[in-house]
Amino acid sequence: MSLLGLYRPGTTWVHRMPVGAKLSGLAVLGIAVTVVRGPLSALAFLMLSVAIAAAGRIGVRRSLRTLRSLLVVLVLLGGYQWWQRGWPVAVEVVADLVCLVLAATVVTATTPMDALLDAFVRACRPLRRLGANPDRIGLAMALMVRAVPGLLDIARETRDAAKARGLERNPRALLVPMTLRTVGRARTTGEALAARGIGDE
Questions:
Q1: Which of 27, 54, 173, 196 could form a disulfide with 162 if both were Cys (CB 3.0 to 4.6 A apart)?
Q2: Is the CB of residue 101 less than 8 Å from the CB of residue 183?
Q3: Over 23-61, what HEC string results?
Q4: Helices in the chain by DSSP H: which ranges?
Q5: 67-71, 77-81, 91-95, 117-121, range with greatest mean pLDDT
Q6: Which residue windows are transmembrane per the record (predicted)?
Q7: Which of 155, 26, 193 is closest to 102 using CA atoms?
Q8: How far apart are alpha carbons 148 and 150 in whole angstroms?
Q9: Cα–Cα dist 66/5, whole Å
């Protein structure tokens, strides 16, 4: 199962929450982890995400599988922060990232994707007065949501390939292939949209 994985029907209170409440809660959590600093606060927010995931019956195995997809990013980011700013900042940054990823996974696992996208498009309707197209924004959001699991699969495959060559500790062996494949995926998506006449207006 990839990051922000498939919807799993259920009857928990997390499943029954309105879509708007879930998205608002996710936004508030994102602001909170940005404003409140310190490793202890970051770990507290992480425990909150873990508790909500447990309430939504996401499952330990599924959560670990999601985070495993982020392993390369977490290791590189945590190592860089430790080197530049010390271990407390490294713990804070990694815990904040895991917290938000887990919270986003809870939202997508307990809410049908169509409902999420419809809520996002409705929220963007006031932007129509500024000349924006809410439906096009919704399409961009849908593409982004569907792209994230693919990009994490690329990261995992790149890591496995580097490990098979004994280069798992070489940043270049990870970053260069991952960047090239990511750019290639973006170009393929753009060409597919252009072939359907999307974006020509």
A1: 173
A2: no
A3: HHHHHHHHHHHHHCCCHHHHHHHHHHHHHHHHHCCCCHH
A4: 13-16, 19-35, 39-55, 60-68, 71-85, 87-110, 113-124, 134-164, 171-195
A5: 91-95
A6: 26-54, 66-83
A7: 26
A8: 5
A9: 8
Place of tokens 């990694």: 94
| CA pair distance 93, 82, nearest whole angstrom | 10
Among 148, 150, 122, 151, which residue's Cα sits nearest to residue 135? 122
Convert the pLDDT of each residue in 151-198 to its tens digit: 777 888 888 888 888 877 777 777 888 888 888 877 776 766 666 565
| Residue where the block lists tokens 């359907």 | 196
Distance CA 182, CA 163 (A): 19
Residues 6 or more apart in contact with residue 156 via CB below 8 angstroms: 68, 69, 71, 72
Q: Quick one: DSSP state of residue 132?
A: -
The two structure tokens encoding residue 102: 């887990």
